[in-house]
Design a protein that fits this description.
The protein is α/β, with parallel strands linked by helices. The protein is built from 19 helices and 25 strands. The structure holds glutamic acid. Glutamic acid (GLU) binds next to strand 6.
Length: about 600
């Protein structure tokens, strides 16, 4: 994971070096926050400031604010090689301290390179894979190569994934960069240019971007962007895109946390996504799916839960078998993938490495790939045969909220549209894209009317160490998403099961006041009533999320707390039932005094395998 930024500006630009780097690091912090650091060319030195901890801490406990210069790089880290420590934080420098490197990814052959460099007299300070890059450049310079040529030569020796930015005192007006697998974008401003892992790092200053491809490298200065691939210069101008993203959309806007803001934004994101789905030409993607021999939907984390819900919808509403696969587990499944199959990759960022690799493998085996992404400029979007773009807006909090519900909406929209192309199994089991239009209204009602009820559930969960989330059929992926949220942001062990399966083992854990959260959708899950009774009989504390008029019988009698969902068509229930679970997790985290935006050990965009 990790996030990198680099900039080069003209001396006449009034904006300060420390404010550019501070803005960049804060925006990238969702990608990693175990340590952070910067390197700036200041006079005749490369000044490095780095430490363990979050960006705030590093800024307030160092001379960060007084940094001056026109060329600099920065990094937020999610360690893969070497524990989080000051010495392992990036930037990593060479022996002379003249070259500083920030890196996102994994240099697979770093041990081999390290041995070679050590044999040539280089002394290593850190345990990272990244440090070899600085010493390699130094090595090639010592053989007489000019700085940029030495950089290129060093990059040519690397195997693995990398987005790299480098400052070198011997090329003091430039930042060198290279990309392979890990994302990297260029920002083109007026008298200032950027390179970063994500557009958000520099969107405050420019929305003119170039998304780099694998194998591209180059440099930025205050007035120039140079890119080459295999030694051939790239026509930079033809690659410039203007992105629609406002600086405001990545601010907290009065909310205490991004997670709260993003939960509250769901009505808007759902409306935007639906409008965008209706205006996109997805005919080719639909045709591919309709004619596919087999359909696979791959995703990781929340995207996998959306994939599971989508695959269930294919079966139930279309009578078409579709298999949801965890991206990192695709290796085995891919053995069965053939020409004529369709593989749908679901990824918020469009950069999730496991999903990217699964799609590449699927393509190699002859399948047609379709991307469902929130970022249409992402690698997954660019490499897929067809793209279905959501419009959830930037999601900064690590725990996915609005991108999960918009993914579900997108998959259900695809299923609804396919019912126009494919004869559905049973006419009454249809969902319609028309009904999905109500999603944003219902989401708004849930957020406005059920927030306090969800906070009360959070007060109960506060002292608990474990919880079950149970549902049937469509309720299962929603339960999985609810349990994941609670784990991620409140650090409470939570497990989701198909409710009927809970009798086959999990119920052994249930004792007095054991929290059990049922998701009752009122569709193919009637038997949930007996599961509620069974849990209650063992003393569980039962919370049921169900539609107002469905809270009857055992559900009404045995639930200790009910979250009364507004009445809505089935397809809208499928989109919105995760929202109260997000609110429960959020409030539990805040009541526990945690920061829901930065769960420990996690990072948002997982770009390492
Ligand atoms: N491998 C580098 C490190 O551990 C970068 C990690 C990453 O990109 O996640 O320092």
């Amino acid at each position: 994971m990790c996030g990198i930024i680099g900039f080069a500006k003209s001396a006449s630009k009034s904006i300060s070096c420390s404010s550019i780097l501070e803005e960049g690091l804060r925006r990238l912090e969702y990608r990693g926050y175990d340590s952070a650091g910067v390197a700036v060319i200041q006079g005749n030195r490369v000044v490095v400031i780095k430490d363990v901890g979050v960006v705030d801490k590093i800024i307030s406990t160092s001379d960060f604010k007084s940094l001056e210069g026109n060329v600099g790089i920065g990094h937020v880290r999610w360690a893969t090689h070497g524990r989080p420590s000051k010495v392992n934080a990036h930037p990593q420098v060479d022996c002379s301290g003249r070259i500083a490197v920030v890196h996102n990814g994994i240099i697979e052959n770093y041990l081999e390179l390290k041995r070679f460099l050590a044999d040539n007299g280089h002394v290593f300070a850190s345990e990272t894979d990244t440090e070899v890059v600085a010493h390699l450049i130094e090595h090639f310079k010592s053989l007489g190569l000019k700085p940029f040529d030495a950089f290129k030569k060093a990059v040519s020796m690397l195997r693995g994934s990398y987005a790299i930015a480098v400052v070198d005192l011997d090329a003091p007006s430039k930042v060198f960069f290279a990309r392979n697998v890990s994302p990297l974008v260029i920002g083109i401003g007026d008298g200032i240019n950027f390179v970063a892992s994500d557009i958000v790092a520099f969107i405050k200053y420019t929305n003119r971007v170039i998304v780099l491809n694998d194998g591209e490298l180059g440099y930025i200065s205050d007035s120039e962007v140079y890119i080459e691939r295999d030694g051939v210069p790239v026509d930079v101008l033809s690659r410039v895109r203007v992105v629609e993203m406002s600086a405001q959309s990545i601010e907290k806007g009065g909310y205490k946390h991004f997670m709260a803001k993003e939960i509250a934004e769901q009505p808007y994101s759902l409306a935007q996504t639906l409008a965008s789905l209706q205006s996109q030409d997805i005919a080719k993607a639909l045709n591919t799916i309709a004619n596919a021999k087999r359909i696979y939907i791959v995703g990781a984390g929340s995207s996998y839960h959306a994939a599971l819900l989508g695959a269930t919808a294919f079966k139930v509403f279309l009578g078409i078998d579709a298999e949801a696969v965890i991206s990192s587990e695709f290796k085995a499944v891919s053995r069965a993938v053939r020409y004529g199959d369709a593989v749908i990759g679901v990824s918020q960022s469009g950069e999730t490495i496991d999903t990217l690799l699964a799609l590449r493998e699927a393509k190699e085996r002859g399948a047609t790939t379709i991307a469902i992404v929130n970022n249409p400029f992402s690698t997954i979007a660019r490499e897929s045969d067809h793209v279905v773009a959501m419009k959830a807006g930037p999601e900064i909090a690590v725990a996915a909220t609005k991108t999960f519900t918009t993914q579900v909406l997108t998959l259900l929209y695809i299923v609804a549209r396919l019912t126009e192309l494919v004869e559905p199994v049973e006419a009454e089991l249809r969902i319609s894209s028309e009904s999905l239009k109500l999603s944003h209204e219902i989401a708004q009602k849930v957020i406005d009317e059920l927030n306090d009820d969800c906070r009360r559930v959070a007060e109960f969960l506060l002292s608990k160490h474990s919880a079950y989330y149970l549902g049937r059929v469509f309720g299962v992926p929603i339960a999985m998403e609810g349990a994941l949220k609670l784990k991620e942001v409140a650090y409470i062990h939570a497990e989701a099961y198909p409710a009927g399966e809970s009798k086959h083992g999990p119920i052994a854990l249930v004792e007095r006041e054991f929290p059990t959260i049922f998701i009752y959708l009122g569709f193919l899950d009637e038997a949930l009533e007996s599961n509620v009774e069974e849990m209650k009989a063992r003393g569980a504390y039962v919370v049921t999320v169900a539609q107002d008029d469905m809270i009857v019988g055992s559900i009404a009698r045995y639930s200790d707390t009910v979250i009364r969902m507004p009445r809505a068509p089935l397809e809208v229930r499928l989109v919105t039932y995760a929202i109260p679970l997000q609110l429960i997790a959020y409030h539990t985290s805040v009541l526990k005094g945690l920061d829901p935006d930065k769960p420990r050990n996690l990072a948002k965009t997982v770009t390492v395998v």
